[in-house]
Amino acid sequence: MKKGNKRKNGLRFVQMLLTAVILMTLNGCGTKEARPVMQQKENKLVSGNEIVLEPETVSENSSISGNETVYEEMSEAEEQAVAGEGTVSGNQIDGDRKIKGIYVSGPIAGHPKMDELIELVDETELNALVIDVKNDDGRITYHMDSGQVKELGASMNLVSDMDGLIRKCKEKDIYLIARIVAFKDPYLAEQRPELCIRRKTGEMFRDKNGLAWVNPYRKEVWDYLVEVASQAAADGFDEIQFDYIRFSTDLKPDQLDFGPEAEEKGRTDVITEFTGYAYEKLSPLGVKVAADVYGTVIDNQVDQDLVGQQYGTMAEHLDYICPMVYPSHYGPGNFGLSVPDAEPYETIFAAMTRSREVLEQIPGERRAGVRVWLQAFTAKWVKGHISYGPEQIRSQIHGAYDAGYEEWILWNAAVNYKREALLTDEEAAEETGKWAEEKAERAAVQENVSGNDEGGF
């Protein structure tokens, strides 16, 4: 049993009450002028800026301004007042803890360092691990008992004892999320060329890194992904998180042939349809279903059409939607910030405030919870960047909290997480209280200033 679990119920109630204070402060005392300005027209993946990522920071969640990288992308929910039950701005509670996790690659999951990561989760506010099951190369990271996986020879022995690893994590009460990369699958594309995306000339499409993608319009690809996900659920994972659940940003539609299905369905249609199909197949297995999406698709139609991810629509077919809102991935001018990477709190708060606004427009009760991906790396390639350490990570976390969200995951491609950036459950509760007090004080000062201006004094 995780250390401190006996105290968590009480602490969780305190944290929820403190969060309520924050939300009431923001809704009742804050002013529009104090919030970041949204600039949708500049919030695009297609700005054409060339970004070169260093190996230790390249990630599945790291496509910036329309540039593909070697690694890229990471129940109902109704907004209610926090009173010990219900939801907050689309986050699920379901009588259970709020998920706070870190990403773990396949090689690290099978390395002795994994014991250190489990200890880190055990001793801090963390309670979840996102582990590569189907990675960016299209390979399964352990010997999976799946007919198609075996037929393709897709398994690797990166994690030699996945059963043992899952058992060890469960003994520590750690929530396990299986990261499954979807349509960026060079291995499947090479093994089954009939499933790949092709140019109109007939040759296989490859992105700028020379990697082939499979065609999201092909039902056979859907079934393969569902089979892999189903087996991960049977092996003990609590949640399936689809990554690269989209089209490549390197695609030039007028040069490609997606088959006859593409004549009747657009990109957002087919990605949303797959999302619903996967949920329908996996949900009965007792596993949660989630998807990583670009942060910019929250409110940018250009980016939605480019990659096929429509934020609000996808959220109607998932348990969780996970926007990748890393400050380094927003260009100059986004949210009214000259260098978003240098303003971690403001960037996350602005992006996630917009997330809340978009999801609140979904009719009915079917709305995914939101778990935000946060930046745990320094983006040295960004002009005007800052180093990301404990202060910047905590600022992002509180940006999400202040926007009404309580679940988050840290991304570092090298799986290098600093203990100093994380708190114990007790420290997290204390920090939340102090943050609420400081926010209330700042809001009160701002209100007094605004009142004096209006009074003409």
Can you characterise this structure?
With 457 residues, this protein is of the alpha/beta class. It has a single domain (5-441), classed as Alpha-Beta Barrel (TIM Barrel), CATH 3.20.20. Helices cover 36% and strands 11% of the residues. It has helices at residues 5-28, 106-109, 113-123, 147-152, 162-171, 186-191, 219-234, 267-282, 301-307, 311-315, 344-359, 390-402, 425-455; strands at 100-104, 128-134, 175-181, 198-199, 239-243, 256-257, 288-294, 320-324, 369-370, 372-375, 408-411. The strands form two sheets. The chain has a nine-stranded parallel sheet. A two-stranded antiparallel ribbon has the order 4-6. Strand 10 (372-375), helix 12 (390-402) and strand 11 form a beta-alpha-beta unit. The radius of gyration is 22 Å and the shape is globular. Residues 3-95 have low confidence and may be disordered.
Percent in helix: 25-40%
- The CATH architecture comes to Alpha-Beta Barrel
The number of strands is 11
* Gyration radius over CA: 22 Å
Q: What's the story with the biggest beta sheet?
A: 9 strands, parallel
* Top-tier CATH class: Alpha Beta
Number of helices: 13
Number of separate structural domains: 1
Q: What's the CATH topology label?
A: TIM Barrel
- Spatial separation of the terminal alpha carbons: 60 Å
Which sequence of SSEs, written as H and E, runs from N to C? HEHHEHHEHEHEEHEHHEHEEHEH
CATH H-level superfamily: Glycosidases
**Strand order in the largest sheet:** 9-8-7-5-3-2-1-11-10
Shape call: globular
